[in-house]
Specification:
This protein is mostly helical and 67 residues long. It has one domain. Helices cover 72% and strands 0% of the residues. The chain has 3 helices and no strands. Helix 2 packs antiparallel against helix 3. The longest helix has 20 residues. The protein starts with a helix and ends in a 9-residue tail after the last helix.
Length: 67
């Protein structure tokens, strides 16, 4: 493992272990701050954001019903 991989690995492992999607996104952002070139953090952040968007679009809206 190269030194730059050792740099972001603990942060990436921590972010991967977070169950809340929003907090996991923040964790991946932290990894990117530590090592902007960490491709896995970019990919996992994108995947998590996509999952969160799908979950929110699957939920019925709670707002007023238009007639």
């Amino acid at each position: 493992m190269a030194w730059f991989e050792k740099l972001h690995q603990p942060f990436l492992a921590l972010a991967d272990g977070i169950s809340s999607a929003m907090l996991r996104i923040e964790g991946y952002r932290k990894v990117i701050q530590v090592d902007y070139a960490c491709e896995l953090a970019h990919q996992r952040l994108s995947d998590t954001a996509r999952q969160l968007t799908r979950q929110r679009s699957d939920q019925p809206s709670v707002g007023p019903v238009s007639a």
